[in-house]
Amino acid sequence: MIFFSANTAGKEYFLFCLLTDIDFATRKVAKHLKQTKEIIQDGDNFKTKTLSTLRNYELNYTVGVEFEEHTKGLDNRVTLVTWDGDKLVCVQKGEKKNRGWKHWIEGDQLHLVRVAIQNHSGCRKIMEKISLISVS
Question: Which residue has the higher pLDDT, 134 or 94?
C-alpha cells in the first residue's frame, strides 16, 4: 500500500476543470483541497482511493478489462486502463467525450496527467510519497 499527497491548486488544474465543464462551485472549492491517494496493487488488479475533505473516490479495476465507472452523477463512463511500458493509461468514454489519464511512479513521486482530447488540453499533478506500507 502506498500513500501520496498533493494540493490540487494550480493553473493547469483550474484550466483543465474549465475545459472539461466542471462547474464553477466545484472548481472554486477544488483549488483549495489537499488530496491523498492510496494505491494497492496485486499484479494487474488495482484498488485506489482518492481522499479529500470535499469528496472521497474509490476506483478498483483490472488492467485490460473495460468497466463502467459510476461517479455519483458527475459523468458516468466506460473506462479501460492498459499498460504502456511502466505507465498506466486510461481511456474513458462517456457523457464527456475523449477523456483519460496517465499514471506512473518515478522515485517518490506519483505522476498524473489528465487529458481531455477534444479540447487538446491536459494537466499534470505530481504527488509526493508520504508512506509505504508493505502488506504480506
Answer: 94
Alpha-carbon gap, residue 118 to 113, rounded angstroms = 15
Q: How many CB atoms lie within 10 A of CB 114?
A: 20
Q: How far apart are CA 133 and CA 121, in angstroms?
A: 35
Q: Are 88 and 104 in contact (CB under 8 A)?
A: yes
Q: Which three cell numbers stand for residue 52?
A: 479529500
Number of domains in the chain: 1
**pLDDT one-digit tens code per residue, 7-66:** 555 555 566 566 666 677 777 776 777 778 889 999 999 999 988 877 788 999 999 999
Q: Measured in whole angstroms, how far is the alpha carbon of residue 56 from the centre of its chain? A: 12
41, 49 contact by CB (below 8 A): no
Q: CA 41, CA 18: separation in Å to the nearest integer?
A: 32
Residue numbers of the domain that contains 118? 2-132
pLDDT at 131: 58
pTM: 0.72
| C-alpha cell read off for 91 | 481511456
CATH number of the domain to which 116 belongs:
2.40.128.20
C-alpha cell at 19: 475545459
